[in-house]
Amino acid sequence: MRRYGKHTDEDDIRSRPNRKGNRPRTNIRPKHEDAAEGMVLTVDRGRLTCLVEDRPIMAMKARELGRKAAVVGDRVALVGDLSGKKDTLARIVRIEERSSLLRRTADDDDPYERVVVANADQLAIVTALADPEPRPRLIDRCLVAAYDGGLEPLLVMTKSDLAPPDKLLELYGHLDIPYVVTSREELENGDAADRVHEYLDDKITAFVGHSGVGKTTLVNALVPKDRRRLTGHVNAVTGRGRHTTTSALALPLPRANGWVIDTPGVRSFGLAHIDPSRVIHAFPDLEPGTEGCPRACSHDEPDCALDAWVEEGHADPARLFSLRRLLATRERREGD
Questions:
Q1: For residue 102, what is the enclosing H or E element?
Q2: What is the distance between the alpha carbons of residues 261 and 121, in angstroms, rounded to a whole number?
Q3: In the chain, N or C terminus with fewer CB closer than 10 Å?
Q4: How far is C-alpha 101 from the geometric centre of its chain's CA atoms?
């Protein structure tokens, strides 16, 4: 049944009010051409601390960004109160294009991708030589994520006073990966910070490592003014460290034109978001050996040329085992 006659005017039709307000709905969004540029320093429960010029600004994400989230290292555009005074809040209205992206998942079966850091130039993979024992497979996973995300890797080995670095250097020393070996004494007297500084100038470096390896201790040595993060210890029963960093934090280097980003300690580094065909790029010592592989080789089949490559002494067998273990976990996820 028609409620109105055949010929009606607009005045005859009752408009339904907008329950969220009286302003008419529109898809046209402001361009915010006068927005200030900033860098995200840390994220805490929906509030983001951003650096605008030389001032820390507290901000929140604008609704118009939808589900797109800003992470530490992001270059963003902000509007609103940019004074940085207490109890003021700005809005992030735009996230600029990213030059690199460090991502991980909780494990290889987890479809949820976690963005750790944006726009970093370098990934410093921190591993202890003892207490806790080094985990080469975790190092390999971090290398995969670094190469896939556009970051250059740096290997930092700590606690050399407890164990020599020989075994790890046999696996990674002959690669084109720069590395630094440090001890507890060198961290205390500043010698370790001096050597690590040489690789950080003019770069944004994200530090990653499992708990207890001395990552936050190293960051504190590099940025001594920021001491509000406590260092932890290793559990004597499990051999695992205690988390001391709960969220990523970007800190400016006082003696160099660069930044360090301290990230929470990880117990696993899932690669569910990475195509298995790209995993080989994290093994530069094995990649040349794939030239003789059959087309679409899985690198874990009888005709794989990597077996001969390793037998000829071009790479360590442990590296091939690590590659195939990574690929096996990825293939199981794809088959689920």
A1: strand 101-104
A2: 11
A3: N
A4: 7
Would you state the structure tokens that stand for residue 68, as one six-digit string?
A: 């797109």
**Cα angle value 31/36/37 (rounded, 5°):** 105
Which range among 35-39, 136-140, 234-238, 244-248 shows the weakest confidence by mean pLDDT?
Answer: 234-238
State percent of the chain over pLDDT 90. Answer: 42
Distance CA 103, CA 110 (A): 13
What is the phi/psi pair of residue 171, to 5°? -85, -35
- Cα–Cα nearest to 161, from 129, 138, 201: 129
Tens of pLDDT, residues 117-134? 999 999 999 999 999 999
- Where b means 16+ CB within 10 Å and e means fewer, 171-196 reads bbeebebebbbbbeebbeeeebbeeb
Identify the CA nearest to 271 among candidates 73, 74, 72, 114. Answer: 114
Give yes or no for a contact between 277 and 260, defined as CB atoms under 8 angstroms apart.
Answer: no
- Confidence band of 61 (pLDDT split at 50, 70, 90): very high
Q: What are phi and psi of 47, to 5 degrees?
A: -105, 135
Q: Which of 91, 37, 48 has the alpha carbon at shortest distance from 71?
A: 48
Where does residue 215 fall: left (phi above 0), alpha (psi -120 to 50 degrees), or beta otherwise?
alpha
Q: Is the pLDDT of residue 112 over 90?
A: no
Give whole-number Cα distances, 266 to 135, 138, 215, 244, in Å: 12, 10, 11, 11
pLDDT of residue 8: 54
Give long-range contacts, CB 8 A cutoff, 24+ apart: 223-232.
223/251, 223/252, 223/253, 223/254, 223/260, 224/254, 225/254, 226/251, 229/262
Supply the pLDDT for residue 235: 40
Of the candidates 208, 291, 205, which has an alpha carbon nearest to the alpha carbon of residue 252?
A: 205
327, HSE (Cβ side, Cα atoms, 13 Å): 19
Among 299, 270, 278, smallest CA distance to 138 is for 270
Q: Whole-angstrom Cα distance, residue 275 to residue 108?
A: 12
Nearest to 104 by CA among 243, 218, 265: 265
